[in-house]
Design goal:
Helices cover 75% and strands 0% of the residues. α3 runs antiparallel to α4 and α5 runs antiparallel to α6. The radius of gyration is 20 Å and the shape is globular. The N and C termini lie far apart (49 Å). The N terminus and C terminus are likely disordered.
Length: 197
């Protein structure tokens, strides 16, 4: 952050598109204002994708990417869809990494017959708590993305279209297919209704 920027009203009054243009021209103060202005939104999107405990890491990754790659943004008016797209990509990478780690831990616990029951129950309880999240994550990438952006972030079909560069009808289709698949998984998984896994 650039010192004194919070008090400099001229920068804060500029629209995002103008700030992007200035940031692309190398004005660090404009980039600083953009980061402050959008950091909370990035964090909110990240919280919808990952646990709040790691949403901060995702947010930092997005801010780093924004600072490094602002020059690659072709259309300065598309800043928010661009940031959401980056957040989704980094969040999905983090989820895949965490899922692989947890899965490996779970398999290691299952393979070891001498593990204390309390440790196993603790892992099992944690995994059940995340099962609903996992069902959402099991959806194909674009279906998951459409559901998160539409229901959690309140984006319209057109805004999702801009953020993902997918045709409008495809966005609608992704959303409806994702909801149908999610409903099917939730209704047919006994572990979600308290059955033994």
């Amino acid at each position: 952050m650039v010192r004194g920027m919070q008090d400099d009203g001229k920068w804060c009054k500029l629209r995002d598109a103008e700030l992007v243009r200035r940031a692309q021209a190398g004005e660090r103060a404009a980039l600083s204002v953009l980061v402050r202005r959008h950091q909370q939104r990035i964090y909110n999107v990240a919280c919808r994708l990952v646990d709040p405990s790691i949403a901060e890491e995702v947010t930092e990754g997005v801010v780093e990417c924004m600072c490094r790659d602002i020059g690659k943004l072709r259309n300065p008016t598309s800043l928010i869809p661009w940031l959401i797209s980056i957040t989704l990509n980094i969040g999905m990478l983090e989820l895949r990494k965490r899922y692989r780690q947890e899965r490996a831990e779970m398999l290691a616990v299952e393979a070891n017959d001498h593990v204390q029951d309390s440790v196993f129950e603790s892992v099992e309880e944690r995994l059940r708590g995340k099962l609903l999240e996992r069902e959402l994550m099991r959806l194909p990438h674009w279906q998951h993305t459409a559901i998160v952006l539409y229901y959690y972030e309140g984006l319209s079909y057109k805004e999702i279209n801009k953020a993902t560069n997918r045709p409008l009808n495809t966005v609608r289709s992704d959303l409806h297919r994702g909801l149908r698949t999610l409903k099917k998984h939730l209704l047919h998984d006994p572990s979600l209704v308290g059955g033994d896994s």
